[in-house]
């Protein structure tokens, strides 16, 4: 495919416009630099170590992963600093985690005493010191210990446990990501992150070193990056951008599209393309055609996607190629085997999605 025009590609095909990608990366770095925080982009919706390296060359300090398997892929590709924003539970996973320390700094999150003891024992057997963050529940009501005294108690336990090294705290204000942009969202985000930073300060006051205060996803990072006490943000999906993030107020450019072929025009307004739920996700936001302003969002079945034009038209015709803006990248990218990087209408590079399928 290298050098081929986009119009010559078979479909469906996951594409990223490299010029747009690079502009989005530049905007992210400018944002974090303006606020004096670090960027540790989440790769759960990126999956490509080569793209992670591009982000590090641009100034990121490392990456964030959702799963241990993703961290193994990134470490194998030479990424030196990785945060797994998740709990690593179970003997097999814990053994993998501690032995990965021989190849990269891989920080794990903890929120329970039993898990802490199991990780520490495995780290001692492997002859490593396992770095950890305490996950703090800042209102999402998923994982994490309560802010304040419970966080300090967990820090005390980690600090007293041989085989572990306390690096800091982490939270995710994801329950606020979808709020409309504005003062109400800003205030709610500041309050949630304030629970995290206050917990970090309480740990420091108790004598525990807290170097990392990590939070801030794509839906909240424009606010989170500027809040006092935050040391790094995790937003990663912003480099690709999608319709979900746009609905959350992010004003980046759409770098990620799926190239589709029109396979049927059964009525003057209906257009059917060769992509469905096995190609694109609509769990957050339905995808849309990029270059047809009067088109509806797509309705997806297993292998078909269809949309309606606002008025009868002869175009697009059967065989035409259309770029579809991704509804939600995190649940679309992993459906594909490759990511095709394009520039000026031609294929520049084809990346295997090495992180896809790494669910454990």
Q: What report would you give on this structure?
A:
This protein is α/β, with parallel strands linked by helices and 360 residues long. The chain folds into 2 domains: 6-13 and 251-352, Lyase, Ornithine Decarboxylase, Chain A, domain 1, CATH 2.40.37; 19-237, Alanine racemase (TIM Barrel, Alpha-Beta Barrel). Helices cover 29% and strands 22% of the residues. It is built from 9 helices and 17 strands. Strands 1, 10, 11, 12, 13, 14, 15, 16 and 17 form a 9-stranded mixed sheet that branches. Helix 4 (91-100) packs across helix 5 and helix 6 packs across helix 7. The protein is elongated, with a radius of gyration of 22 Å. The mean pLDDT is 97.
Strand content: 15-25%
What is the number of domains?
Answer: 2
Order of helices and strands: EHEHEHEHEHEHEHEHEHEEEEEEEE
Report the CATH architecture of the largest domain. Answer: Alpha-Beta Barrel
Largest sheet: 9 strands, mixed
Head-to-tail CA distance between termini:
32 Å
Mean pLDDT comes to: 97
Radius of gyration from the alpha-carbon trace, in angstroms: 22 Å
Helix percent reads 25-40%
Total strands:
17
State the fourth-level CATH superfamily of the largest domain.
Alanine racemase
Number of helices: 9
Under CATH, the topology of the largest domain can be stated as TIM Barrel
The coarse silhouette is elongated
Contiguous runs where pLDDT drops below 50 for at least 5 residues: none
The CATH first-level class of the largest domain comes to Alpha Beta
| SS-based class | alpha/beta
């Amino acid at each position: 495919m290298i050098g081929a025009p986009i119009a010559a590609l078979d479909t469906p095909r996951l594409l990223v416009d490299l010029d747009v990608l690079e502009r989005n990366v530049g905007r992210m770095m400018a944002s974090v630099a303006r606020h004096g925080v670090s960027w540790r982009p989440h790769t759960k919706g990126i999956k490509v170590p080569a793209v992670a390296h591009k982000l590090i060359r641009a100034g990121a300090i490392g990456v964030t992963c959702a799963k241990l398997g993703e961290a193994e892929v990134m470490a194998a590709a030479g990424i030196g600093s990785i945060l797994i924003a998740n709990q690593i539970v179970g003997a097999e996973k814990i053994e993998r985690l501690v032995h990965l320390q021989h190849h990269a700094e891989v920080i794990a999150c903890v929120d329970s005493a039993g898990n802490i003891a199991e990780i520490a024992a495995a780290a001692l057997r492997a002859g490593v010191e396992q770095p950890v963050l305490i996950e703090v529940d800042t209102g999402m009501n998923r994982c994490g210990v309560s802010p304040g005294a419970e966080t300090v108690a967990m820090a005390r336990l980690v600090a007293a446990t041989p085989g572990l090294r306390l690096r800091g705290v982490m939270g995710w204000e994801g329950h606020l990501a979808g709020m409309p942009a504005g003062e109400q969202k800003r205030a709610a985000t500041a309050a949630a992150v304030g629970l995290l930073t206050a917990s970090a300060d309480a740990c420091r006051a108790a004598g525990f070193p807290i170097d990392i205060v990590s939070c801030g996803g794509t839906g909240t990072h424009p606010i989170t990056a500027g809040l006092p006490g935050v040391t790094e943000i995790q937003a990663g999906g912003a480099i690709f951008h999608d319709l979900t993030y746009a609905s959350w107020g992010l004003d980046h450019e759409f770098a990620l599209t799926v190239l589709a072929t029109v396979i049927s025009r059964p009525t003057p307004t209906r257009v059917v393309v060769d992509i469905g739920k096995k190609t694109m996700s609509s769990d957050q936001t339905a995808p849309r055609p990029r270059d047809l302003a009067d088109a509806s969002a797509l309705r997806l079945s297993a292998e078909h996607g269809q949309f309606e034009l606002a008025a009868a038209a002869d175009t697009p015709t059967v065989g035409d190629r259309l770029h579809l803006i991704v509804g939600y990248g995190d649940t679309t990218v992993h459906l594909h085997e490759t990511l095709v990087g394009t520039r000026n209408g031609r294929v520049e590079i084809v990346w295997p999605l090495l992180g896809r399928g790494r669910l454990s």
